[in-house]
Amino acid sequence: MSVRDAGPPIALLVIVVVLSLLSPQFRTTGNALNILDAAAVLAVVTCGTTFVLLLGSIDLSAAGVMGASSLVVAVLVENSRNNLDLGILGILIAVVLAAALGCVSGLLVVLLKVPSFMTTLGVSAIGLGIATLVFDGVQPGVVDPSLRSWATGRLLGLTYLTWIAVVCVLIAWFVQRYTRLGRYAMAIGGAEEVLALSGVRVGPYKVAVFTMAGAFYGLGAVMVTSQLGSGLVQSGASYTFASITAAVVGGTLLVGGRGGVLHSTVGVLLLTVLTNGLVLIGVSPYVQGGVQGLIVVVAVAVAAAPLRHRNQVVK
């Protein structure tokens, strides 16, 4: 582990110690469990964002993709608006829809050579359009007891959502560490031209990464729907920026080729701990936003300092 890799975990530890000294309530077991539960959805969404960042690309589609998946799952499982009750099949359809939208982003990037932040922003708008059409002026409430139990049921003190997030992080780490897709994603972000010259067709791997990211967003949307108890067009509104922030704070570079799922997970915990602690010590929500923004700027500046020559070209 390099000094740069050790930075985010050390920062997390320092923040935990400081907040524990400032707030006795922060250092309780119950609050620790609350922090893990609060980090669950962001951790899943950040898994998808991380792989796109490893490519050296930016994905701004999470909000729209999550909105579409949230409404679709809400009307396909047992709900207050229609007679459908597809159960687990409804959840799978919502995740597949999100993966399809991610695939569209990847195809546009690869085939049309359009910058990723533009294509994904457009796909986000498509997702929000789908969500609005499905919403149709009536918010569907989720009645399905199985899906609702994701947010209410507990195992070893943690909600099922948290255990789902743990499984997702482990799967994402395995993909990054032990599969060709994960290794090539890292290599594309580090030196795409060299990889292409070695005979690897990078296009299909880029599309696969965006598709996988979409699937993570879709699952995150299902988790949010379980928490809210209804489908919501804006269910993913805060996660686009938050997931990129968490990944960057954890040590995944915006220019690609460095970092990974475990780095980003540390970033998720750091942001969640910071938000929780600032609330407990009575800091104004407006100040909280400023503090988080400052942390992002500092993290990006520190990470990018040794790589200024690569930052001359933004993918």
From TrEMBL:
Lineage, broadest ranks: Bacteria, Bacillati, Actinomycetota, Actinomycetes, Micromonosporales
Membrane topology: Multi-pass membrane protein
Record-level GO cellular component terms: plasma membrane
One example GO MF annotation: transmembrane transporter activity
Native organism: Micromonospora craterilacus
Protein name as it appears in the record: ABC transporter permease
Domain of life: Bacteria
Transmembrane region(s): 6-23, 35-54, 60-77, 89-111, 117-135, 155-175, 207-224, 236-255, 262-283, 289-307
UniProt KW Transferase keyword: no
UniProt subcellular location: Cell membrane
Pfam families, sorted: BPD_transp_2 (PF02653)
InterPro entries to which the protein is assigned, alphabetical: ABC_transp_permease
CDD domains (UniProt xref): TM_PBP1_transp_AraH_like
UniProt KW keywords: Cell membrane, Membrane, Transmembrane, Transmembrane helix
